[in-house]
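Exercise (ungraded).
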Amino acid sequence: MHAPTLPPTQLFGGFLKMKHPAVLLAAVLLLLSSALICYRIIWLKYPILPAAPEKVWQLSIDALIRGDEKETTVMMGVPYTHRRQNVAEERIRSGRLSFNILREGINQVGIWSGTLGREAETIGYRATIQVQPQRPFQTKPPGLPPYPANIGESEQRLAKRLVKKWDTLPPAERLQKIVAAVIGIWGTPPPIDQDLRSWSGFRERHSQLEAFLLLLRTADLPARVVEGLQLVESVTTKTLVWIEVWVGQEWDSLQPETGEIYQKSVPLLPLTIGGLPAVRIINGELSEVRWTLNRQITNQWQMHFERIMRSNRWLDRWSLFRLPEVFQGTFRILILVPIGALMICILRNMVGFPTFGIFMPVLMALAFRNTGLLYGLGIFASVVLLGYGARHWINKLRLLLVPRLSVILTLVIIFFTVFALIGNKVGLRELMAVGLLPFVILTMTIERFFIIIEEAGVREGLRTAAGSAAVAAITHKILHFEPLQLTFFVYPELLFAVAAVQVLLGRYTGYRLSEFIRFRKLWRTS
Amino acid sequence: MEDIMNFNTYSQLRQFGILGMNRRNAEYIMRFNPRPSFPLVDDKLMTKRLAESYQIPTPTLYHVIEYHGDIAGLHEMLNDHQDFVIKPARGAGGSGILLITNHQELRFFKPNSEVMSWTDLTYHIFDILSGVYSLEGLEDRALIETFIHPDPVFASVTYYGVPDIRIIVYRGVPVMGMIRLPTKASDGKANLHRGAIGVGVDMREGVTTTAVHHSIVITHHPDTGHPLSDIPVPYWEKMLYIAARTFDMTGLGYLGTDIVIDRERGPLLLELNARPGLQIQIANRTGLLSRLELIDKAPLDIFTTPEMRVEWALKTFAPSSST
């Protein structure tokens, strides 16, 4: 046996410093992760924060129709998915009629058609709508619509004279002036008497809605009539009609009867836009049309599931949502385990926390999934304590290592069995769920606990136990934080980002928090 | 706890040139200690044989027990030796080491006067063989070695057991030294985490300086009450030379060398450690990092022989040179 003879360069140069490749790898991983996320958000229109508290409503439209001998067609405006809303779980009731969904302009129309004879038929539409009112509907200014057909040229000229003095104002102020004018406040200077008289004449022949549309059109403010519902818990037989006015960046909603502009906090659900009625029937009689809105505490998972299942995009087809539901549950948890590992990296390498084994707290946290945190920790502590007592006693028997560990393993299983039986007697499900605790980990923990106490004292043993329990509890909380689960489930590429942080932590050569305490006497005493 | 809140703490640690655990692992152990060389130091039997081939003296080996059957040889050995030490070849941090000061009719006396039966002794050996004390739980061998009778120089500051000298060697240059003194609490063992005392050594003078016990700075031995500073360390330069040679022996760039001073034979290489602890910085009240950086800055050609490296270290590392 003799020494390895190394060339001097290798002796003194050491190994290549790996700092830059690690940073590079982390950067590549981060880039990959954010590129995939951007792709999903920008091209696949995923929500940026899948777990943000969102307003989810259930809309039901029900109608009773009576047909005649000819073919009956019912057309209803139905909501569809766009930037501000996400429509899912659509259910149709069509009875003997056939159903189809068509695009009509910017509207989506559900069409029920068929021959009914004299009998009545109930039709229905149901959908879950997730509203994101904070998002702008569109950013491109719309074109000006033509004048309404029933407005004559003289009326157009009249309107021009009336709004001319506001031409220089910004759109929002122009809108305010027009609202005031329609209510009857013209401001100074007022229009000439003749114009005012002609305007009164116009108002007698036309509705206030038309008066608004005329003045808005003349003032070059794009406007459109919208029929829809106010998003409140309600059952109504009548839709709401309002005017949307483009004021530069977005649409303002104007109540045509009162001239009131809806606050942004009052969410509205448009059904048809551009004057199309929300419900139309050809050859038949429509009775009892009912719109029902229910606020829904939904399951975010369902929303994503629905939209991803309907998509044919490449990344959607490779989504975790495509897994059979049984396995999805496992992956919700599994996909967060790397975060638990990251936590342990931080606690051990940056804080300097003692734990039994490296990943034992993560496995403990996984086991607490079945028992809950308190019962889990309780069961864990009692098994370790009972096991420690047994190990102490077994020590006198002088068993060799492998058989000794086997005895402890058997004891652990016996404890589980007893716990389960007691749990069954007193009706505590949590105690019966112990069977899924990681028994191998428990066995090794008992052995390590014993050895640490023997070698480094009870204090060190308890400190390590407390450290492990704390890390397990934190990890458990992370693993069961539903918004985080959902975020990772929707964007599994976040795992690359987690790996990037882990790589960077692997190159953290700074001090640990515990070393501040450890070395403080150096300047305390010198 | 207020130290944690202190933002200056980080820069203070840097200013003292303190080497932290993360930097030790990433920048020194992972960079300078090639993995294939680890077995040379993790296995005490391999270290011993390697040291012999480099004419570095080590404690006399009486017997090696590799299989349960080898126990038979123990009886023979007992006839020749009254005192001995049983240790696992791959033990870490002093675990599994058993000191026997005397034996009579298969009753074995430990230094604290506890008595062990033959069954107790063989149970301990079997534990060693099954890997209870080994680094990765691998099967192990039990070494039976001579009981070191330490040089009396540290007798006044040793409760019982054998003090040893830990020297950190970086790229073959001895960097920092510390005497490890057993206490009552450490059960005669020289491992700091078991309660032994670490005493810093002035690199140039070879004289003890400050001491640490359980992370607390002390001036006197807690059991014997004698002062710990200003004790001249015998064979200091010779031990630095042994330490410097362990680099040529193992090819490990960052190494802890443990040496004992035998009353008759002088310094003996006890074991090597590829992951030496950081407590030596507290004992010496000096950071390792600043010294390691000095070595990195020095020109390569002055480190070609162990003699040159020791000479350079003696010249460069006075206790105050780093701060």
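Further reading is listed at the end of the chapter. For now, observe: The two ends of chain B are 25 Å apart (CA to CA). Confidence is low (pLDDT under 50) at residues 1-5 of chain B.
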